[in-house]
Design goal:
The chain is α+β, with helices and mostly antiparallel strands and 387 residues long. The protein is built from twelve helices and 15 strands. The strands form four sheets. It has a five-stranded mixed sheet, covered by helices on one side. The longest helix has 25 residues. The chain binds glutathione.
Length: 387
């Protein structure tokens, strides 16, 4: 939709983004379908329920009603009384705005925009800039002002570097939904795999509620754990919408999506593939040695078989750790950069076969674990779990 010729004689444009003279109508009969699709994150389906897009002529307040599924002529409705601003947000000036900033190394240009990009009054803006420092400075200035006043919906700072002009680095991302972080609930048991997740949330600065459960067969909290994770394992994370995430790596990936700047998972460089290789190795090769070795009698009927299973999983674990040791890059597992792998190592080297064995056989992993344990946020989590 480009421009409108209003019967009043004036013309106006469809845009710009978040124009205060543009709105959407949904039939009450479709409203719950719309909400349901939205909550499921199916934005295309949700938009399908928008019955019409409506524009209000800024000169005469006439409404131009454009049914979304009908290409016929646009009906217009003239008000009988003063009717300016009908399509503005119900929150008035307090509406939650988007903030976006982008910079392109190749063209040496960038811009920052927030709110209604076409309106100069109020806290809205579109500013073109010719230095990266200015883009970054203005972005954070507006970010602090709008988020402080609770008038921000989402914010994104992107830089298109010369290496890959089409793929921006997302340098800062924030959303209103992810700001409601207090609602994450982690089910875990002291010193178990949830410690890795707790440490990652602490490093990312995302608050976490915690519920202690015991996964053993006769425990009074097992029923509660099974309700959340039918596999009976921790960590299990309950999100604010009630949905559940299990599997430590899936949880870390989710957290990394929420807080990309926490640098838990490398993005856009060569270490990313090594991160995934060794993270999956830890959860798929090392972790199961505990699943089948912790209580071998769960898996094998006779005592001799159970003893053998315990011994063979212990031996297999040691061999797997030697491979991890051989691949350790230096300061951190991936070399110069910290990642969530260092948190896995920090926690898992506190499990069997015990610290002494790790010190004797995997000194590089122990050094990484000690360095990570000195990060104050990690230290607090370790003290709670192993102290
Ligand atoms: N692949 C899972 C493994 C989780 C796991 O094995 N957790 C242990 C505690 S550290 C557990 O719940 N064990 C009880 C069981 O497997 O029944 C992950 O990465 O989160």
């Amino acid at each position: 939709m480009g421009g409108f010729a209003c019967p009043c004689g004036s013309g106006f444009r469809d845009g710009p983004d978040f124009a205060p003279h543009k709105g959407h109508l949904i039939s009450d009969q479709d409203f719950e379908d719309f909400q349901q699709a939205q909550q499921a994150g199916k934005w295309n389906v949700a938009y399908w329920h928008v019955k019409a897009t409506v524009w209000q002529c800024p000169a005469c307040s006439r409404l131009h009603f454009h049914p979304n599924r009908d290409t016929g002529p646009v009906p217009t409705f003239a008000p009988e009384a003063e009717a300016a601003g009908l399509l503005r947000s119900v929150w008035g000036e307090e509406w939650k705005r988007s903030l976006r900033a982008r910079w392109e190394d190749s063209s040496g240009s960038g811009n920052v925009w927030w709110g209604d990009t076409g309106t100069k009054e109020g806290d809205n803006g579109f500013v073109e800039l010719s230095s990266w420092e200015d883009v970054e400075k203005l972005y954070y200035e507006v970010f602090r002002r709008l988020s402080g006043a609770r008038r921000l919906r989402s914010a994104l700072l992107q830089r298109y570097d010369r290496v890959d002009r089409n793929k921006p680095q997302n340098l800062h991302y924030w959303s209103f939904e992810s700001a409601q972080w207090g609602k994450h609930l982690l089910l875990g048991c002291k010193g178990c795999g949830n410690t890795i997740v707790e440490a990652a949330f602490a490093v990312a600065g995302v608050p976490l509620d915690y519920e202690e459960v015991d996964y053993s067969a006769d425990s009074p909290t097992r029923a509660r754990l099974l309700e959340v994770n039918p596999l009976g394992q921790v960590p299990a994370l309950v999100l604010s919408d009630g949905s559940v995430l299990t599997e430590s790596l899936a949880i870390l990936q989710y957290l990394d999506d929420l807080k990309p700047n926490a640098n838990l998972i490398p993005k856009g460089d060569a270490t990313r593939k090594h991160f995934y290789r060794w993270a999956v190795f830890l959860v798929a090769a090392v972790y199961p040695t505990f699943t089948y070795g912790d209580e071998p009698e769960k898996w094998v009927a006779d005592a001799a078989g159970a003893k053998m299973l315990r011994e063979s999983t212990d031996a297999h674990r040691k061999a797997a750790w030697q491979q991890v040791e051989a691949a350790a890059g230096g300061r951190w597992f991936l070399g110069e950069r910290f990642s969530a792998l260092d948190l896995y190592i920090t926690v898992m080297t506190r499990w069997r076969p015990g610290r002494k064995w790790f010190e004797a056989n995997t000194p590089r992993l122990v050094a990484i674990a000690e360095k990570a344990a000195a990060i104050p946020e990690v230290a607090a989590v370790l003290a709670r779990n192993f102290g």
